[in-house]
Amino acid sequence: MGRKFVVGGNWKMNGTKAQINEILGFLKAGPLNADTEVVIGVPAIYLDYVKSNAPANVEVAAQNAYKAEKGAFTGETSPLMLKDIGVNWVILGHSERRQIFGESDELIAEKVAFALSNGLKVIACIGETLEERDAGKSEEVVFRQTQAIANQIKDWSNVVLAYEPVWAIGTGKTATPQQAQEVHQSLRQWISKNISPEVANAVRIQYGGSVTGANAKELGSQADIDGFLVGGASLKPEFVSIVNARQ
Ligand code: PEP
């Protein structure tokens, strides 16, 4: 199928310069599988620093960007500013943005569309809460979140979807490879039917939620898992073995 494995690290609101230098140290030492695309999601204040100091085989992402070029949006960062400092990726729709900062499906979709139209690549996060899973609504939620994005964009070539069940994020409760594969597969089928078979074949779907060096290989061997979005473990040297899960 030829979908390149893509592993993102989401540092969230973590890191000081000293810690960042350590992280960059283990990323430089690697070695990182050349067949895997690596993108690290960095707090806004450190984007320029990391962009200037990261090894060439590691791309840099913002963790958020607003849906306007510039203006009276205190505290926000625009896609143009990201491009201006050479940052080509942004993570949007993370469950923490949805839950803590109240971002709606529609706002996230608008941000995705605006970021893409300004030449950014997007990791768009989707995923159900524990309540929704227990109510048997995992697929319904993931399809609804993806539909909101599909309503705003036509070209999916610069989008990576990250399926991140909220109950698995930062909890140590990983979805089993079978649970994750099941959702990834039905999402791909939904995309084929509701967007196009071409997009379904090409779009990369990452799994995120307590991925570690210990569970990455089995998760990464599932047919519809094309990479990971990694939180806690992306701050640690084990991130290298997650990047290399397909080796
Ligand atoms: C995340 O923040 O996207 C995430 C998956 O976190 P963790 O790996 O810590 O569960």
UniProtKB/TrEMBL annotation:
UniProt xrefs under NCBIfam families: tim (TIGR00419)
CDD domains referenced in this protein's UniProt entry, alphabetically: TIM
Listed pathway(s): Carbohydrate degradation; glycolysis; D-glyceraldehyde 3-phosphate from glycerone phosphate: step 1/1; Carbohydrate biosynthesis; gluconeogenesis
Catalysed reactions, semicolon-separated: D-glyceraldehyde 3-phosphate = dihydroxyacetone phosphate
Organism: Dendroctonus ponderosae
Assigned keywords, A-Z: Gluconeogenesis, Glycolysis, Isomerase
EC number, UniProt record: 5.3.1.1
GO terms classed as biological process: gluconeogenesis; glyceraldehyde-3-phosphate biosynthetic process; glycerol catabolic process; glycolytic process
Family: Belongs to the triosephosphate isomerase family.
Keyword presence, Isomerase: yes
Enzyme class: isomerase
Protein name, as recorded: Triosephosphate isomerase
